[in-house]
Amino acid sequence: MFADFFGHLLNVFRTIQWRDCIDILVVAYLIYHVLRFIKQTRAGHLLRGLVFLLVLILMARFLELSAVGYLMNNVLQLSFITIIIVFQPELRSLLEKLGRINFSNVLPFSKAGNIEQDRIEAAINHVCDCCADLSARRIGGLLVFENTTKLGDIAATGTQLNCELSAQALVTIFFPNTPLHDGAVFVRDFRIVAAGCLLPLSQRLEISKALGTRHRAAVGLSEISDAVVIVVSEETGKISYAQNGEIHLGISTDELRNVLKGTFLSEQKKAKNVEVEA
């Protein structure tokens, strides 16, 4: 019996072609990300609701309850439209993440990194000094560092400055009761492009109620872009940052420096390596 089973299993493997392997891997990859999406969003509760409806439909058919079966069938059809409406922000975020897949690192015209490495390091040190100063004085701050996703629409909501990035300039902008202290400072190529910018707030229910508007705005922008958003809490003085839809609370200035260097200097090195190989 076991010999027949293993013989049949071996024959199945012999018939598998390389296209079948690719097919299985792609389907497994998609299923993994769908399950991960369900786990990280409200989709899990909705999925349980759909399973409950399916059980009711099967019970109605088994017990020949025509009225209940008709009602459940119509509700199930409307549920698929409801999924698109209810989870529009999550679906939009998923599509935007797919669109942010960066193929440019392997191309000769990739992000050239016209910004010199020394200037990036100096700017990062200015940012860390500013955050340390704001933290010590309990002054709130919100800084957006644009990465590969262009956020001109966000920059347009603020006052255009287009000036060099320095710790003194940032502290002056965030000083209480100044005209631009309430919004976000928008940084592109390590220059201050605009200040007083408005960011989209995250709609995720699992974000702690203890976090304020700045933190929710930081998460909201990081959900729809690959920007790094830094937050200094006015209440606690703690430094945090949001990236890829996740917020990291209470970090030190050294940790912040490593995050910024790991994000932007690594991109610079990749660009230089591509230029050398070309």
Give an account of the 3D structure:
The protein has 278 residues and is an alpha+beta fold. It folds into 2 domains: 2-101, no CATH class; 117-277, YojJ-like (1. 57% of the residues lie in helices and 14% in strands. The protein is built from 10 helices and 7 strands. It has helices at residues 2-15, 18-40, 43-62, 66-86, 88-99, 117-136, 152-155, 167-174, 213-224, 253-277, and strands at residues 141-145, 159-164, 184-188, 191-197, 228-232, 239-243, 246-251. It has a 7-stranded mixed β-sheet with strand order 2-4-3-1-5-6-7, sandwiched between helices. A hairpin with a 2-residue loop joins strand 3 (184-188) and strand 4 (191-197). The longest helix has 25 residues, at 253-277. The relative contact order is 0.10.
Please give a quick description of this structure:
This protein has 278 residues and is of the alpha+beta class.
Key features of this structure:
single chain, 278 residues, 2 domains, seven-stranded mixed beta sheet
SSE string: HHHHHHEHEHEEHEEEH
Distance between the termini: 61 Å
Q: What share of residues is helical?
A: 55-70%
Provide the structure class: alpha+beta
CATH superfamily of the largest domain: DNA integrity scanning protein, DisA, N-terminal domain
Round the mean pLDDT to the nearest integer and report it: 79
Poorly predicted regions are 103-114, 270-278
Q: Into which percentage range does the β-strand content fall?
A: 5-15%
Give a count of the beta strands, DSSP E runs of length 2 or more: 7
